[in-house]
Amino acid sequence: MRLKIAPNALEEMQKHAEATYPNECCGFFYGKDGEIRNIEVAKEVTNSKEGDQRRRFEVSPLDYLKAERYADEIGQTLLGIYHSHPEHPAIPSEHDLKQAVPFFSYIIISVMKGKAEVTKSWQLDDAGKFEEEEIL
Amino acid sequence: MAQIIIPTPLRKFTDNLATIKTNGSNIQESMLDLATQYPEVKQHLFDESGALRKFVRIYIGDEDIKALQNENTPVEDNTEISIIPAIAGGIA
Question: Could you give the domains of chain B?
């Protein structure tokens, strides 16, 4: 799978990742699916994880419902979730894999010393493993 | 008869349909009917013992069925059931 991320959507995700540093941030993104996945809108959501947010994120069920409804409202598809990895590479962890769902792109932003440095995207393959998506 | 709203990630198992009408008088029966209509979605909703997966939440409107009568919560013709995948992750 290949992704195109609108510059303002990418900027929004990266700024969000920097603003929440050293904690993890999370959010959803929306756009059009196809041979190339076009991400047009990114929207942050509250990290509802109780406890240490430097290593974990969680989205509340109600926020997820709102995200699906928002996709309907704007006539786009909910294409995935972004989150940050403060002081860690933009590679999915075991924990990311355990919680991952099919279809969604998982954008991970590596934030080093408060700066968003590397952004990568991943998707589950049919065998249930993460495969990196090419960001065009 | 109720309507189940399928979350985007599972629509590839329901012929890309976002809403499915199901038969059943409660949540349990409705979910089982969904799995009968679209067998591919079953493994994403139920574990090997037939119980709803831990990572799946079910809402009626904005209410978690855990705050109602769980899988025994009755449904009516106009009941809108949402399936919500747990979204979480992080470094460790």
Answer: 2-85 (3.10.20.30)
